User: Fold this.
Amino acid sequence: MGISIENINLTVDEEVYLKDISLELEPGSTNIFLGRTLSGKTTLLRIMAGLDRPDTGRIIVNGEDVTGVSVRKRNISMVYQQFINYPSFTIYDNIASPLKILGMDKKKIDHKVREVAQMLHLESMLDRLPVELSGGQQQRCAIARALVKDSNLLLLDEPLVNLDYKLREELQIDLQDIFQQRDTIVVYTTTEPGEALKLGGSIVVLDKGRMIQTGVTSQVYHKPATIKVAEVFSDPPINLLNCVVNNKTLSLGDNVSTPLKGHLSSLSPGNYIVGIRSNHLYLTPQNGNDTMLDAIVELAEINGSETFIHMDFEKTKLVVQEVGVYSQKIDSKIKVFLDPANLFIFSESGSLILSPDHLKLEHL
Amino acid sequence: MKKRTVFFIIYMILLMLPIYWMLNMSLRTNADILGSFSLYPKNITFANYMKIFTDSSWYNGYINSIIYVTLNTMISLVAALPAAYAFSRYNFIGDKHLFFWLLTNRMAPAAVFLLPFFQLYSTFGLIDTHIAVAMAHCLFNVPLAVWILEGFMSAVPREIDETAFIDGYKFPRFFLTIFVPLIRSGIGVTAFFCFMFSWVELLLARTLTTTDAKPIAATMTRTVSATGLDWGLLAAAGILTIVPGALVIWFVRNNLAKGFAMGRV
Assistant:
Protein backbone atom coordinates (compact mmCIF):
# COMPACT_ATOMS: atom_id res chain seq x y z
CA MET A 1 0.00 0.00 0.00
CA GLY A 2 1.75 3.13 -1.16
CA ILE A 3 0.78 6.75 -0.96
CA SER A 4 1.75 9.37 -3.45
CA ILE A 5 1.33 13.07 -2.99
CA GLU A 6 1.18 15.08 -6.16
CA ASN A 7 1.84 18.82 -6.42
CA ILE A 8 0.19 19.89 -3.20
CA ASN A 9 -0.19 23.65 -2.80
CA LEU A 10 -1.81 25.54 0.03
CA THR A 11 -1.97 29.27 0.52
CA VAL A 12 -3.91 30.80 3.39
CA ASP A 13 -4.42 34.57 3.51
CA GLU A 14 -1.72 35.09 0.89
CA GLU A 15 0.76 33.23 3.03
CA VAL A 16 2.29 30.19 1.40
CA TYR A 17 1.84 27.20 3.68
CA LEU A 18 2.85 24.53 1.21
CA LYS A 19 4.40 24.94 -2.21
CA ASP A 20 4.44 22.21 -4.81
CA ILE A 21 4.93 19.19 -2.57
CA SER A 22 5.29 15.85 -4.34
CA LEU A 23 6.21 12.70 -2.48
CA GLU A 24 6.13 8.95 -2.81
CA LEU A 25 5.75 7.00 0.42
CA GLU A 26 6.67 3.33 0.14
CA PRO A 27 4.62 0.66 1.91
CA GLY A 28 5.97 -0.03 5.37
CA SER A 29 8.35 2.89 5.29
CA THR A 30 9.23 5.27 8.08
CA ASN A 31 9.27 8.84 6.85
CA ILE A 32 10.59 11.77 8.81
CA PHE A 33 9.46 15.30 8.04
CA LEU A 34 12.19 17.54 9.39
CA GLY A 35 11.81 21.28 9.52
CA ARG A 36 11.69 24.21 11.86
CA THR A 37 8.46 25.59 13.22
CA LEU A 38 6.23 27.05 10.48
CA SER A 39 7.97 24.96 7.83
CA GLY A 40 4.68 23.29 6.93
CA LYS A 41 5.20 19.91 8.59
CA THR A 42 1.93 19.87 10.48
CA THR A 43 0.00 21.34 7.57
CA LEU A 44 1.25 18.61 5.27
CA LEU A 45 0.38 16.00 7.86
CA ARG A 46 -3.14 17.36 8.24
CA ILE A 47 -3.61 17.30 4.48
CA MET A 48 -2.40 13.72 4.36
CA ALA A 49 -4.84 12.85 7.13
CA GLY A 50 -7.71 14.51 5.30
CA LEU A 51 -8.31 17.05 8.07
CA ASP A 52 -7.47 19.94 5.74
CA ARG A 53 -7.74 20.28 2.01
CA PRO A 54 -5.03 21.53 -0.30
CA ASP A 55 -5.75 24.31 -2.81
CA THR A 56 -4.45 22.14 -5.60
CA GLY A 57 -2.84 18.75 -5.84
CA ARG A 58 -3.88 15.18 -5.18
CA ILE A 59 -3.26 12.42 -2.69
CA ILE A 60 -3.30 8.97 -4.24
CA VAL A 61 -3.64 5.86 -2.09
CA ASN A 62 -3.30 2.59 -4.00
CA GLY A 63 -4.02 4.35 -7.23
CA GLU A 64 -7.17 5.95 -5.85
CA ASP A 65 -7.58 9.70 -5.47
CA VAL A 66 -8.55 10.34 -1.83
CA THR A 67 -7.95 14.08 -1.75
CA GLY A 68 -11.53 15.04 -0.86
CA VAL A 69 -12.43 11.92 1.11
CA SER A 70 -13.53 12.61 4.69
CA VAL A 71 -11.13 11.67 7.44
CA ARG A 72 -13.72 9.27 8.86
CA LYS A 73 -13.57 7.12 5.76
CA ARG A 74 -9.80 6.87 5.66
CA ASN A 75 -8.03 4.28 7.68
CA ILE A 76 -5.44 6.42 9.43
CA SER A 77 -4.23 7.15 12.95
CA MET A 78 -2.72 10.32 14.27
CA VAL A 79 -0.85 11.42 17.37
CA TYR A 80 -0.72 15.11 18.16
CA GLN A 81 1.96 17.17 19.80
CA GLN A 82 -0.47 18.01 22.61
CA PHE A 83 -1.62 15.05 24.68
CA ILE A 84 -5.02 14.40 23.16
CA ASN A 85 -7.19 11.76 24.83
CA TYR A 86 -10.89 11.57 25.54
CA PRO A 87 -10.96 13.02 29.07
CA SER A 88 -14.18 11.31 30.10
CA PHE A 89 -13.01 7.81 29.07
CA THR A 90 -10.70 5.58 31.05
CA ILE A 91 -7.36 4.67 29.49
CA TYR A 92 -8.82 1.31 28.52
CA ASP A 93 -11.79 2.90 26.77
CA ASN A 94 -9.54 5.46 25.16
CA ILE A 95 -7.42 2.78 23.58
CA ALA A 96 -10.43 0.63 22.72
CA SER A 97 -12.42 3.44 21.12
CA PRO A 98 -11.27 3.03 17.48
CA LEU A 99 -11.96 -0.71 17.69
CA LYS A 100 -15.40 -0.24 19.23
CA ILE A 101 -16.34 1.99 16.32
CA LEU A 102 -15.29 -0.77 13.93
CA GLY A 103 -17.71 -3.06 15.72
CA MET A 104 -15.09 -5.60 16.71
CA ASP A 105 -16.20 -8.18 19.27
CA LYS A 106 -15.40 -7.59 22.91
CA LYS A 107 -12.89 -10.40 23.40
CA LYS A 108 -10.84 -9.38 20.42
CA ILE A 109 -10.87 -5.74 21.54
CA ASP A 110 -9.76 -6.76 25.01
CA HIS A 111 -6.90 -8.82 23.62
CA LYS A 112 -5.70 -6.05 21.34
CA VAL A 113 -5.99 -3.31 23.97
CA ARG A 114 -3.96 -5.32 26.47
CA GLU A 115 -1.38 -6.17 23.87
CA VAL A 116 -0.78 -2.55 22.89
CA ALA A 117 -0.98 -1.39 26.51
CA GLN A 118 1.78 -3.82 27.38
CA MET A 119 3.89 -2.56 24.51
CA LEU A 120 3.62 0.99 25.88
CA HIS A 121 3.80 0.04 29.58
CA LEU A 122 0.26 1.15 30.38
CA GLU A 123 -1.11 -2.13 31.80
CA SER A 124 -1.29 -0.92 35.38
CA MET A 125 -3.27 2.24 34.60
CA LEU A 126 -5.99 0.99 32.28
CA ASP A 127 -8.73 1.86 34.77
CA ARG A 128 -7.63 5.42 35.32
CA LEU A 129 -8.74 8.59 33.60
CA PRO A 130 -6.29 10.56 31.46
CA VAL A 131 -6.08 13.42 34.00
CA GLU A 132 -4.79 10.99 36.60
CA LEU A 133 -1.75 10.22 34.45
CA SER A 134 1.50 12.06 33.97
CA GLY A 135 2.18 13.81 30.68
CA GLY A 136 4.33 10.98 29.38
CA GLN A 137 1.72 8.40 30.24
CA GLN A 138 -1.00 10.49 28.60
CA GLN A 139 1.02 10.68 25.42
CA ARG A 140 1.67 6.94 25.54
CA CYS A 141 -2.07 6.45 25.80
CA ALA A 142 -2.54 8.60 22.70
CA ILE A 143 0.12 6.58 20.89
CA ALA A 144 -1.53 3.35 22.01
CA ARG A 145 -4.85 4.49 20.58
CA ALA A 146 -3.14 5.26 17.30
CA LEU A 147 -1.43 1.89 17.19
CA VAL A 148 -4.32 -0.30 18.25
CA LYS A 149 -6.06 -0.30 14.91
CA ASP A 150 -4.26 -1.50 11.82
CA SER A 151 -4.28 1.76 9.96
CA ASN A 152 -2.74 2.30 6.54
CA LEU A 153 -1.10 5.47 7.60
CA LEU A 154 0.25 6.43 11.02
CA LEU A 155 0.88 10.13 11.45
CA LEU A 156 2.84 11.44 14.41
CA ASP A 157 3.11 15.19 14.77
CA GLU A 158 6.08 15.92 17.04
CA PRO A 159 4.72 13.39 19.52
CA LEU A 160 7.61 13.57 21.96
CA VAL A 161 8.30 17.27 21.97
CA ASN A 162 6.40 18.00 25.19
CA LEU A 163 8.04 15.20 27.15
CA ASP A 164 11.08 15.37 29.34
CA TYR A 165 14.42 14.28 28.01
CA LYS A 166 14.60 10.85 29.64
CA LEU A 167 11.13 9.82 28.64
CA ARG A 168 11.72 11.03 25.12
CA GLU A 169 14.79 8.82 24.74
CA GLU A 170 12.90 5.83 26.09
CA LEU A 171 9.99 6.32 23.75
CA GLN A 172 12.24 6.97 20.76
CA ILE A 173 13.75 3.52 21.22
CA ASP A 174 10.34 1.91 21.77
CA LEU A 175 8.86 3.62 18.74
CA GLN A 176 11.68 2.50 16.48
CA ASP A 177 10.86 -1.13 17.30
CA ILE A 178 7.14 -0.57 16.94
CA PHE A 179 7.53 1.07 13.52
CA GLN A 180 9.69 -1.78 12.30
CA GLN A 181 7.17 -4.41 13.37
CA ARG A 182 4.39 -2.90 11.28
CA ASP A 183 3.79 -2.60 7.59
CA THR A 184 2.05 0.72 8.11
CA ILE A 185 3.42 3.83 6.47
CA VAL A 186 4.71 5.96 9.32
CA VAL A 187 5.10 9.69 9.00
CA TYR A 188 6.86 11.39 11.88
CA THR A 189 7.47 15.11 12.07
CA THR A 190 10.19 16.64 14.18
CA THR A 191 12.28 19.76 14.54
CA GLU A 192 15.18 17.85 16.05
CA PRO A 193 17.93 16.49 13.82
CA GLY A 194 18.96 14.05 16.55
CA GLU A 195 15.52 12.51 16.70
CA ALA A 196 15.39 12.21 12.93
CA LEU A 197 18.70 10.36 12.87
CA LYS A 198 17.63 7.99 15.64
CA LEU A 199 14.46 7.02 13.84
CA GLY A 200 16.25 6.58 10.53
CA GLY A 201 14.11 5.75 7.52
CA SER A 202 13.80 8.34 4.85
CA ILE A 203 13.56 12.04 5.36
CA VAL A 204 11.88 15.04 3.83
CA VAL A 205 13.50 18.32 4.81
CA LEU A 206 10.98 21.16 4.71
CA ASP A 207 11.58 24.87 4.83
CA LYS A 208 8.93 27.59 4.44
CA GLY A 209 6.48 25.15 2.90
CA ARG A 210 8.91 23.80 0.34
CA MET A 211 10.68 20.47 0.18
CA ILE A 212 14.36 21.23 0.10
CA GLN A 213 15.76 17.72 0.14
CA THR A 214 14.57 14.14 0.34
CA GLY A 215 16.44 10.89 0.73
CA VAL A 216 17.67 8.34 3.23
CA THR A 217 17.97 10.11 6.58
CA SER A 218 21.63 9.39 7.28
CA GLN A 219 22.65 10.19 3.72
CA VAL A 220 20.94 13.54 3.82
CA TYR A 221 22.70 14.23 7.09
CA HIS A 222 26.05 13.41 5.55
CA LYS A 223 25.43 15.21 2.30
CA PRO A 224 23.09 18.14 2.81
CA ALA A 225 22.43 19.51 -0.69
CA THR A 226 22.37 23.13 0.39
CA ILE A 227 23.33 25.37 3.29
CA LYS A 228 19.65 25.59 4.21
CA VAL A 229 19.38 21.81 4.60
CA ALA A 230 22.57 21.76 6.65
CA GLU A 231 21.15 24.48 8.90
CA VAL A 232 17.86 22.67 9.45
CA PHE A 233 19.61 19.35 9.91
CA SER A 234 21.92 20.41 12.73
CA ASP A 235 21.12 21.73 16.13
CA PRO A 236 22.52 24.25 16.97
CA PRO A 237 22.56 25.33 13.30
CA ILE A 238 25.74 24.57 11.39
CA ASN A 239 28.50 27.19 11.67
CA LEU A 240 29.24 29.00 8.43
CA LEU A 241 32.46 30.81 7.54
CA ASN A 242 33.64 32.50 4.39
CA CYS A 243 36.83 31.06 2.98
CA VAL A 244 39.23 31.59 0.16
CA VAL A 245 41.05 28.73 -1.51
CA ASN A 246 44.44 29.35 -3.11
CA ASN A 247 46.61 26.77 -4.79
CA LYS A 248 47.49 24.76 -1.73
CA THR A 249 45.67 26.33 1.19
CA LEU A 250 42.22 27.19 2.48
CA SER A 251 42.08 30.49 4.38
CA LEU A 252 39.45 31.22 7.01
CA GLY A 253 39.24 34.91 7.79
CA ASP A 254 42.43 36.97 7.82
CA ASN A 255 45.00 34.85 9.63
CA VAL A 256 43.95 31.22 9.63
CA SER A 257 44.84 28.86 6.87
CA THR A 258 45.02 25.13 6.52
CA PRO A 259 46.55 22.96 3.77
CA LEU A 260 44.17 21.25 1.36
CA LYS A 261 44.20 17.63 2.42
CA GLY A 262 41.87 14.65 2.31
CA HIS A 263 38.48 15.36 0.83
CA LEU A 264 39.47 19.00 0.31
CA SER A 265 42.42 18.29 -1.97
CA SER A 266 40.37 18.51 -5.14
CA LEU A 267 39.13 22.06 -4.42
CA SER A 268 39.87 24.55 -7.17
CA PRO A 269 40.86 28.11 -6.19
CA GLY A 270 38.04 30.52 -5.45
CA ASN A 271 35.65 31.77 -2.76
CA TYR A 272 33.55 29.27 -0.80
CA ILE A 273 31.49 28.97 2.30
CA VAL A 274 32.70 26.49 4.88
CA GLY A 275 30.25 24.69 7.12
CA ILE A 276 31.15 22.91 10.31
CA ARG A 277 28.74 21.44 12.84
CA SER A 278 29.12 22.79 16.35
CA ASN A 279 29.87 19.32 17.73
CA HIS A 280 32.96 19.31 15.54
CA LEU A 281 34.40 22.44 17.07
CA TYR A 282 36.47 21.78 20.17
CA LEU A 283 38.06 23.80 22.95
CA THR A 284 41.03 21.46 23.18
CA PRO A 285 43.24 20.05 20.40
CA GLN A 286 41.94 16.65 19.22
CA ASN A 287 44.72 15.36 16.96
CA GLY A 288 47.65 16.61 14.93
CA ASN A 289 45.46 17.93 12.11
CA ASP A 290 43.69 20.63 14.09
CA THR A 291 43.40 24.16 12.89
CA MET A 292 43.18 26.77 15.62
CA LEU A 293 40.88 29.83 15.59
CA ASP A 294 41.09 32.75 18.01
CA ALA A 295 37.64 33.85 19.05
CA ILE A 296 35.93 35.96 21.70
CA VAL A 297 33.28 34.44 23.98
CA GLU A 298 29.84 36.02 23.74
CA LEU A 299 27.74 33.64 25.77
CA ALA A 300 27.99 30.24 27.40
CA GLU A 301 24.70 28.41 27.50
CA ILE A 302 24.36 25.24 29.53
CA ASN A 303 21.96 22.74 28.03
CA GLY A 304 21.62 19.60 30.11
CA SER A 305 25.02 17.99 30.28
CA GLU A 306 26.31 20.04 27.38
CA THR A 307 27.53 23.60 27.02
CA PHE A 308 26.91 25.73 23.96
CA ILE A 309 29.55 28.44 23.75
CA HIS A 310 28.60 31.26 21.42
CA MET A 311 31.59 33.21 20.15
CA ASP A 312 32.73 35.77 17.68
CA PHE A 313 35.45 34.88 15.18
CA GLU A 314 36.37 37.89 13.09
CA LYS A 315 32.74 39.12 13.02
CA THR A 316 31.33 35.66 12.32
CA LYS A 317 29.23 33.95 14.95
CA LEU A 318 30.29 30.46 15.92
CA VAL A 319 28.72 27.98 18.33
CA VAL A 320 30.79 25.29 19.98
CA GLN A 321 29.04 22.31 21.53
CA GLU A 322 31.06 20.70 24.29
CA VAL A 323 30.06 17.76 26.42
CA GLY A 324 30.27 18.76 30.07
CA VAL A 325 29.49 21.97 31.89
CA TYR A 326 31.89 24.83 31.27
CA SER A 327 31.64 28.38 32.38
CA GLN A 328 33.31 30.98 30.22
CA LYS A 329 33.84 34.64 30.97
CA ILE A 330 32.08 36.83 28.48
CA ASP A 331 34.47 38.81 26.23
CA SER A 332 37.39 36.54 27.14
CA LYS A 333 39.62 35.20 24.41
CA ILE A 334 39.27 31.55 23.57
CA LYS A 335 40.95 29.08 21.26
CA VAL A 336 38.77 26.84 19.11
CA PHE A 337 40.03 23.79 17.29
CA LEU A 338 38.61 22.19 14.20
CA ASP A 339 39.66 19.28 12.07
CA PRO A 340 39.57 20.21 8.37
CA ALA A 341 38.42 16.65 7.68
CA ASN A 342 35.02 17.65 9.16
CA LEU A 343 34.46 20.63 6.88
CA PHE A 344 31.56 20.95 4.46
CA ILE A 345 32.31 23.13 1.48
CA PHE A 346 29.45 25.05 -0.09
CA SER A 347 29.53 27.31 -3.10
CA GLU A 348 28.76 30.97 -2.54
CA SER A 349 25.26 30.36 -3.85
CA GLY A 350 24.76 27.78 -1.11
CA SER A 351 24.94 24.38 -2.79
CA LEU A 352 27.12 21.56 -1.53
CA ILE A 353 30.46 21.02 -3.23
CA LEU A 354 32.27 18.70 -0.83
CA SER A 355 31.25 16.87 2.29
CA PRO A 356 33.43 15.08 4.84
CA ASP A 357 34.26 11.48 3.96
CA HIS A 358 32.74 10.08 7.11
CA LEU A 359 31.11 11.81 9.97
CA LYS A 360 30.72 10.48 13.44
CA LEU A 361 27.15 10.61 14.70
CA GLU A 362 28.12 11.18 18.32
CA HIS A 363 26.78 13.93 20.58
CA LEU A 364 23.51 14.49 18.86
CA MET B 1 -13.40 38.79 65.93
CA LYS B 2 -11.71 39.94 62.80
CA LYS B 3 -12.94 43.05 61.02
CA ARG B 4 -13.62 41.01 57.91
CA THR B 5 -15.87 38.64 59.78
CA VAL B 6 -17.86 41.48 61.30
CA PHE B 7 -18.46 43.08 57.92
CA PHE B 8 -19.39 39.74 56.47
CA ILE B 9 -21.97 39.17 59.15
CA ILE B 10 -23.45 42.64 58.69
CA TYR B 11 -23.59 42.06 54.95
CA MET B 12 -25.29 38.71 55.35
CA ILE B 13 -27.85 40.18 57.73
CA LEU B 14 -28.67 42.92 55.25
CA LEU B 15 -28.99 40.33 52.49
CA MET B 16 -31.13 37.93 54.45
CA LEU B 17 -33.38 40.51 56.13
CA PRO B 18 -36.03 40.78 53.39
CA ILE B 19 -36.17 37.03 53.03
CA TYR B 20 -36.43 36.57 56.77
CA TRP B 21 -39.17 39.18 56.91
CA MET B 22 -41.08 37.39 54.21
CA LEU B 23 -40.72 34.09 56.08
CA ASN B 24 -41.83 35.87 59.26
CA MET B 25 -44.92 37.23 57.52
CA SER B 26 -45.76 33.95 55.86
CA LEU B 27 -46.10 32.28 59.25
CA ARG B 28 -48.57 34.87 60.63
CA THR B 29 -52.19 35.63 59.93
CA ASN B 30 -53.14 38.74 58.02
CA ALA B 31 -54.71 40.31 61.12
CA ASP B 32 -51.58 39.60 63.14
CA ILE B 33 -49.34 41.21 60.50
CA LEU B 34 -51.45 44.34 60.31
CA GLY B 35 -52.15 44.48 64.04
CA SER B 36 -48.79 44.36 65.76
CA PHE B 37 -45.09 44.68 65.02
CA SER B 38 -43.05 41.66 65.90
CA LEU B 39 -39.54 40.54 65.01
CA TYR B 40 -40.60 36.91 65.02
CA PRO B 41 -43.94 35.14 64.63
CA LYS B 42 -45.49 34.73 68.10
CA ASN B 43 -48.37 32.52 67.04
CA ILE B 44 -47.01 30.39 64.21
CA THR B 45 -49.64 29.37 61.67
CA PHE B 46 -49.27 27.32 58.52
CA ALA B 47 -52.67 28.35 57.23
CA ASN B 48 -51.16 30.44 54.43
CA TYR B 49 -49.15 27.49 53.15
CA MET B 50 -52.12 25.16 53.51
CA LYS B 51 -54.20 27.49 51.38
CA ILE B 52 -51.59 27.47 48.61
CA PHE B 53 -51.24 23.70 48.65
CA THR B 54 -54.99 23.06 48.65
CA ASP B 55 -56.38 25.83 46.45
CA SER B 56 -55.95 24.76 42.85
CA SER B 57 -55.78 28.35 41.56
CA TRP B 58 -52.64 28.72 43.71
CA TYR B 59 -50.81 25.43 43.25
CA ASN B 60 -51.62 25.37 39.54
CA GLY B 61 -49.58 28.55 39.29
CA TYR B 62 -46.51 26.63 40.43
CA ILE B 63 -47.24 23.70 38.16
CA ASN B 64 -47.70 25.99 35.17
CA SER B 65 -44.50 27.84 35.92
CA ILE B 66 -42.53 24.63 36.29
CA ILE B 67 -43.94 23.25 33.04
CA TYR B 68 -43.05 26.20 30.87
CA VAL B 69 -39.71 26.77 32.56
CA THR B 70 -38.73 23.13 31.97
CA LEU B 71 -39.95 23.30 28.39
CA ASN B 72 -38.02 26.47 27.81
CA THR B 73 -34.82 25.10 29.32
CA MET B 74 -35.03 22.04 27.11
CA ILE B 75 -35.78 23.97 23.93
CA SER B 76 -33.01 26.44 24.68
CA LEU B 77 -30.44 23.70 25.23
CA VAL B 78 -31.47 21.68 22.20
CA ALA B 79 -31.27 24.75 19.98
CA ALA B 80 -28.15 26.22 21.54
CA LEU B 81 -25.92 23.12 21.66
CA PRO B 82 -25.52 22.76 17.87
CA ALA B 83 -25.43 26.53 17.39
CA ALA B 84 -22.68 26.97 19.97
CA TYR B 85 -20.75 24.08 18.42
CA ALA B 86 -20.91 25.75 15.03
CA PHE B 87 -19.77 29.09 16.44
CA SER B 88 -16.89 27.52 18.31
CA ARG B 89 -15.67 25.18 15.55
CA TYR B 90 -16.41 26.70 12.15
CA ASN B 91 -15.57 29.91 10.41
CA PHE B 92 -18.19 31.27 8.11
CA ILE B 93 -18.92 34.65 6.61
CA GLY B 94 -20.35 36.95 9.24
CA ASP B 95 -19.96 34.48 12.11
CA LYS B 96 -18.74 37.12 14.55
CA HIS B 97 -21.50 39.54 13.58
CA LEU B 98 -24.12 36.86 13.94
CA PHE B 99 -22.74 35.92 17.34
CA PHE B 100 -22.91 39.51 18.51
CA TRP B 101 -26.36 39.98 17.05
CA LEU B 102 -27.55 37.04 19.12
CA LEU B 103 -26.37 38.82 22.23
CA THR B 104 -28.09 42.05 21.30
CA ASN B 105 -31.39 40.18 21.59
CA ARG B 106 -30.79 40.16 25.31
CA MET B 107 -30.34 43.91 25.35
CA ALA B 108 -33.85 44.67 24.11
CA PRO B 109 -36.50 45.06 26.82
CA ALA B 110 -39.16 42.38 26.82
CA ALA B 111 -41.88 44.99 26.42
CA VAL B 112 -40.62 45.70 22.90
CA PHE B 113 -41.55 42.21 21.82
CA LEU B 114 -44.76 42.02 23.80
CA LEU B 115 -47.11 43.29 21.13
CA PRO B 116 -45.75 41.25 18.21
CA PHE B 117 -45.73 38.13 20.36
CA PHE B 118 -49.28 38.68 21.51
CA GLN B 119 -50.50 39.33 17.97
CA LEU B 120 -48.62 36.36 16.53
CA TYR B 121 -49.66 33.90 19.20
CA SER B 122 -53.28 35.06 19.00
CA THR B 123 -53.24 34.32 15.30
CA PHE B 124 -51.96 30.81 15.84
CA GLY B 125 -54.20 30.19 18.85
CA LEU B 126 -51.29 29.74 21.18
CA ILE B 127 -52.40 32.20 23.83
CA ASP B 128 -52.71 30.64 27.28
CA THR B 129 -50.56 27.62 26.48
CA HIS B 130 -47.32 26.59 28.17
CA ILE B 131 -45.46 26.30 24.90
CA ALA B 132 -46.27 29.93 24.08
CA VAL B 133 -44.48 31.21 27.16
CA ALA B 134 -41.63 28.72 26.73
CA MET B 135 -41.03 29.87 23.17
CA ALA B 136 -41.30 33.55 24.04
CA HIS B 137 -38.65 33.10 26.70
CA CYS B 138 -36.35 31.48 24.12
CA LEU B 139 -35.86 34.97 22.76
CA PHE B 140 -33.65 35.72 25.77
CA ASN B 141 -32.49 32.29 26.74
CA VAL B 142 -31.24 30.88 23.43
CA PRO B 143 -28.72 33.70 22.89
CA LEU B 144 -27.59 33.41 26.48
CA ALA B 145 -27.26 29.64 26.18
CA VAL B 146 -25.29 29.93 22.93
CA TRP B 147 -23.01 32.49 24.52
CA ILE B 148 -22.27 30.42 27.63
CA LEU B 149 -21.92 27.10 25.80
CA GLU B 150 -19.66 28.57 23.13
CA GLY B 151 -17.23 29.55 25.87
CA PHE B 152 -17.17 26.07 27.32
CA MET B 153 -16.90 24.43 23.92
CA SER B 154 -14.04 26.63 22.79
CA ALA B 155 -12.11 25.48 25.84
CA VAL B 156 -12.21 21.90 24.50
CA PRO B 157 -9.29 21.42 22.11
CA ARG B 158 -10.34 20.99 18.49
CA GLU B 159 -7.92 18.07 18.27
CA ILE B 160 -10.30 15.99 20.38
CA ASP B 161 -12.94 16.34 17.67
CA GLU B 162 -10.41 15.48 15.01
CA THR B 163 -9.11 12.47 16.91
CA ALA B 164 -12.65 11.19 17.20
CA PHE B 165 -13.24 11.59 13.48
CA ILE B 166 -9.91 9.88 12.76
CA ASP B 167 -11.02 7.04 15.03
CA GLY B 168 -14.11 6.82 12.84
CA TYR B 169 -16.81 8.34 15.05
CA LYS B 170 -19.88 9.62 13.27
CA PHE B 171 -20.82 13.11 14.39
CA PRO B 172 -23.88 12.33 16.56
CA ARG B 173 -22.08 9.57 18.46
CA PHE B 174 -19.01 11.75 18.97
CA PHE B 175 -21.15 14.66 20.14
CA LEU B 176 -23.17 12.67 22.63
CA THR B 177 -20.58 10.27 24.01
CA ILE B 178 -17.40 12.34 23.92
CA PHE B 179 -18.21 16.01 23.56
CA VAL B 180 -21.23 16.49 25.81
CA PRO B 181 -19.54 14.90 28.86
CA LEU B 182 -16.67 17.35 28.42
CA ILE B 183 -18.93 20.38 28.65
CA ARG B 184 -21.21 18.94 31.34
CA SER B 185 -20.65 21.82 33.71
CA GLY B 186 -21.33 24.25 30.87
CA ILE B 187 -24.64 22.58 30.20
CA GLY B 188 -25.44 22.69 33.92
CA VAL B 189 -24.69 26.39 34.13
CA THR B 190 -26.66 27.10 30.97
CA ALA B 191 -29.67 25.17 32.20
CA PHE B 192 -29.50 27.08 35.46
CA PHE B 193 -29.51 30.46 33.75
CA CYS B 194 -32.33 29.50 31.41
CA PHE B 195 -34.31 28.27 34.40
CA MET B 196 -33.60 31.42 36.37
CA PHE B 197 -34.56 33.90 33.66
CA SER B 198 -37.66 32.02 32.70
CA TRP B 199 -38.71 31.53 36.33
CA VAL B 200 -38.53 35.21 37.26
CA GLU B 201 -39.80 36.69 33.99
CA LEU B 202 -43.23 38.17 34.58
CA LEU B 203 -44.25 40.48 31.75
CA LEU B 204 -44.35 38.01 28.85
CA ALA B 205 -45.59 35.16 30.99
CA ARG B 206 -48.50 37.19 32.32
CA THR B 207 -49.49 38.70 28.99
CA LEU B 208 -49.45 35.47 27.03
CA THR B 209 -51.53 33.53 29.57
CA THR B 210 -54.97 33.93 31.02
CA THR B 211 -56.03 30.95 33.13
CA ASP B 212 -54.80 27.56 31.95
CA ALA B 213 -51.11 28.41 31.91
CA LYS B 214 -51.07 31.25 34.39
CA PRO B 215 -47.68 31.35 36.16
CA ILE B 216 -47.27 31.76 39.91
CA ALA B 217 -45.85 35.25 39.60
CA ALA B 218 -49.00 36.34 37.81
CA THR B 219 -51.21 34.65 40.38
CA MET B 220 -49.41 36.56 43.10
CA THR B 221 -50.17 39.91 41.50
CA ARG B 222 -53.88 39.09 41.50
CA THR B 223 -54.49 38.65 45.22
CA VAL B 224 -55.78 42.15 45.65
CA SER B 225 -59.36 41.92 46.78
CA ALA B 226 -61.96 44.20 48.31
CA THR B 227 -60.41 43.64 51.74
CA GLY B 228 -56.97 44.67 50.54
CA LEU B 229 -53.84 42.58 50.09
CA ASP B 230 -53.52 39.22 51.78
CA TRP B 231 -50.02 39.79 53.17
CA GLY B 232 -49.53 36.42 54.80
CA LEU B 233 -50.62 34.45 51.77
CA LEU B 234 -48.50 36.54 49.44
CA ALA B 235 -45.44 36.04 51.67
CA ALA B 236 -45.98 32.28 51.74
CA ALA B 237 -46.23 32.21 47.96
CA GLY B 238 -43.05 34.25 47.77
CA ILE B 239 -41.17 31.82 49.99
CA LEU B 240 -42.35 28.91 47.87
CA THR B 241 -41.22 30.73 44.73
CA ILE B 242 -37.70 31.06 46.07
CA VAL B 243 -37.42 27.36 46.87
CA PRO B 244 -36.97 25.92 43.32
CA GLY B 245 -34.34 28.55 42.46
CA ALA B 246 -32.46 27.83 45.67
CA LEU B 247 -32.55 24.11 44.93
CA VAL B 248 -31.22 24.57 41.41
CA ILE B 249 -28.44 26.85 42.66
CA TRP B 250 -27.49 24.21 45.21
CA PHE B 251 -27.13 21.58 42.50
CA VAL B 252 -25.08 23.65 40.07
CA ARG B 253 -23.02 25.66 42.56
CA ASN B 254 -19.72 23.95 41.67
CA ASN B 255 -20.31 24.23 37.95
CA LEU B 256 -21.32 27.83 38.40
CA ALA B 257 -17.91 28.61 39.88
CA LYS B 258 -16.29 26.99 36.85
CA GLY B 259 -18.48 29.07 34.58
CA PHE B 260 -17.46 32.25 36.33
CA ALA B 261 -13.81 31.26 36.03
CA MET B 262 -14.28 30.88 32.29
CA GLY B 263 -15.61 34.39 32.09
CA ARG B 264 -18.76 33.53 30.25
CA VAL B 265 -21.38 33.70 32.98
